[in-house]
Design brief:
homodimer; N-(1-d-carboxylethyl)-l-norvaline Dehydrogenase, domain 2; 52% helix; alpha/beta; two-stranded antiparallel sheet; 337 residues; 2 domains; eight-stranded mixed sheet; Rossmann fold
């Protein structure tokens, strides 16, 4: 099978490993932000952040080689962050004819023209002619690239496409479960980044006070999972999905490492939220959980109205901390109630 | 209110803090194993393991002062590990007349005379005339003793007693939720220790290979929660309880620190299970998760028969690793399947 991965970021590049290991013709295309990555991988050097070279069987394509990268391709992986989805789809244009499935690693929400907050996969489905497959589950890119055991969840309403993608991507060390609940997986995938900020605040309180706040962090964990389920259910997903790998599992790994957790940690140590966000954001890096918290809170409000604080106490507290300069510990602890 | 805490171990002693802060007359009684603790606390020194002295309002009683410790007491906390429940109840004898509630921090299973595996609270209820209250939720003792924010869950079928205990124990930093689902809380409280061994194995694989296994650990997390729910439901509890603080929340904190996680870590680095268990066990310390894994697996088998591997894949793998010298990584990873 010919598989193109669009975006040579960490997760896009990491997915070259299971697909190349599966014997497929894998093309990794770098965006304008990936030129240093492309240069490195092209000469067999490691990916600058992942630390691993491209696996045998995968080839790398530069930003001006999108046409050749997509030629004859049957499956496309959108390997860019949520902010780059629009520009990359613009660049791709009508080159996706013949593609049957488009998988996405981007996590977040889109605001549709009528102001509705929806999973990014809705936007993608609107713009491409292929079946959309969401990827959820705990999956740190550096471990995927190094063939460490990883179990993910592919989600699509198209059962036949789901089977094809499962068979194409699964290896001995990259297990692919499947679910028809695309909404549940996408809500969990987006919101786990937001909730990781909240749980990261407990890590920051540990730094600020010199004393672990593990009990607090653990108390927030099931609240986060419950609220993710409520949000998913509110827009037509299965609330149970978040109890599995895409919700609880992915949140578990997201609070172990990554920028969302670090944002929370900074805030927990006393750095004002807007300053912490600014310090972690640059031209080509964003904090997906910050955007997800904002969009998720708006979505929760649209579902709950005046009851949003009761229905989503943790998300409401997080939103107040991130956007309204609410006192950090008091606001978070009041949410535990 | 007069409250006696039986056992001056970490958690028993820690509970002197919220109760003394609540203005109660708190008596902490040390068992024969606690004489060094009693001696230290009596002169105002810190608890040797917790690192904190007894809070104002709490008094300490030595092993031969059980009578005075229990005089006029209305609420008793059983602050000993599962192995010590029987001996302590023997020592207490008929001194619990007038006690309306007995709370227990011990986590585990008991085998009744007819060979049935049951929560320890069933054994306690059989032997004491008071209402039994289980304590669940993420609650590291050192944080409770230091008044770090902690949210727990009290469980009892007796709603009036539950209310009394809630009011007696809750403080600004020690939040007490309540549930009638004693079985669900007790199964989760016992089994989270067992599953923490399984997740700890991923930490050991990191040490053994020099490479994080966070994806694996996170993949195991929702499996553990799901199996705890199935087990609770199988003996009359509410499977949903495990999604909350007593299941997912407590598992979250248990995989952060503690002996159960360390047992898994040792096994993950390649130490044979029986040797790892031996190295962590001594006269007055036990690994509650090891006993819970054995009893839990027997309970799961009694509920599932030949289908135990399908219904409880992670617990089955853990049991095979702990008891049957099954190859560690292959067995664990096959369970994710």
């Amino acid at each position: 099978m010919r598989i193109a991965i669009l975006g040579a970021g960490d997760m896009g590049t990491a997915l070259a490993t299971p697909t190349a290991d599966g014997g497929h013709d894998v093309r990794l295309w770098g965006t304008a932000y990936d030129s240093a990555v492309v240069d490195a991988l092209r000469v067999g050097a490691p990916h600058p952040r992942l630390g691993t070279p491209l696996p045998a069987g995968a080839r790398v394509f530069a930003v001006d080689e999108l046409g050749p990268a997509l030629a004859g391709v049957e499956v496309v992986v959108l390997g860019v962050t949520s902010y780059a989805i629009g520009p990359v789809l613009n660049a791709v244009g009508d080159k996706l004819r013949g593609v049957s499935a488009i998988l996405t690693v981007a996590k977040g929400f889109d605001e549709s023209d009528d102001g509705r907050i929806r999973p990014l996969t809705d936007l993608i489905a609107e713009r491409v002619p292929a079946a959309v497959v969401g990827i959820g589950g705990p999956s740190k890119a550096n471990e995927v690239a190094r063939r460490r055991p990883t179990a993910v969840l592919f989600a699509s309403s198209d059962a036949a496409i789901l089977r094809i993608c499962h068979d194409a991507f699964e290896t001995e060390v990259y297990r692919v479960g499947t679910t028809p609940d695309l909404i549940g997986v996408e809500v969990a995938a987006a919101m786990k980044n937001a909730y990781a900020i909240a749980l990261g605040i407990a890590d920051g309180l540990q730094i600020a006070t010199g004393m672990p706040h593990h009990n607090l962090r653990a108390a927030l964990f099931p609240m986060a999972v419950r609220e993710m389920g409520r949000l998913a259910g509110g827009i037509g997903g299965d609330p149970e999905t978040v109890s599995g790998p895409a919700g609880a599992g992915d949140l578990q790994v997201t609070i172990t490492a990554g920028r969302n957790r670090i944002l929370g940690e900074l805030i927990g140590t006393g750095v004002p939220a807007e300053e912490a966000v600014r310090s972690l954001t640059s031209a080509d890096t964003t904090i997906e959980g910050y955007a997800a918290a904002k969009a998720g809170y708006r979505l929760a409000t649209s579902l709950s109205g005046a009851g949003v604080t009761a229905d989503y106490p943790l998300l409401s507290a997080l939103s107040a901390i991130l956007l309204d300069r609410a006192p950090v510990f008091d606001t978070l602890w009041a949410a535990v109630g």
